Amino acid sequence: MAPTTTTTASWTVAPEPFDSPAAAALWRAYYTEVSDRWYLLHEGHTTDPAELEREIAAETGAELAPPTGVLLLARYDGEPAGTVGVRRLMSGGNAVTGTGELKRMFVRKEMRGKGGGSVLLAAAEEAAGGLGLERLVLDTRNDLVEARAMYARHGYEEIERYNDEEYAEHWFAKRLCSGQSPV
């Protein structure tokens, strides 16, 4: 079941093919920002351009395509401003029953502070329900403090590590059915 289009004030969120020009541009902006942020913090320089191109190309986003996932694109006053993906969580090649994973949660810098993160997160939770998911998990890093605060504000609770992502330092979960623990 495809998620419905969500509109709030000047924000519109709708499914988008992972390989559309708008999705590709936002993926590049997202990856560049988080990679540069990590390198600046840990090594004092931005990402090597060749590494950046290699890593952007390696993560196509195909796992965010139906029927096992969805990429949502947010527009602010019609302009592409952010994305979030939801996919079924896999373990050992099998889907984890009822659990999905948030990926590529991103709002362009110039659009931050306008509520886009909350709008995208609500749309992702709705899309997860449309995929038959009851729980969402995600990973993030220490330096992404704004993201961690937003997840906590929206009911995500820290959990034990659920994946082996090299740069992940925090793991969160939220049960989409009310009144239940996220773990």
Automatic annotation (TrEMBL):
InterPro entries: Acyl_CoA_acyltransferase, Bact_Acetyltransf, GNAT_dom. SUPFAM superfamilies: Acyl-CoA N-acyltransferases (Nat). PROSITE patterns: GNAT (PS51186). Keywords: Acyltransferase, Transferase. Residues 25-177 form the N-acetyltransferase domain. CDD domains: NAT_SF. The keyword Disulfide bond does not apply. The keyword Acyltransferase applies. This is GNAT family N-acetyltransferase. It comes from Streptomyces ureilyticus.
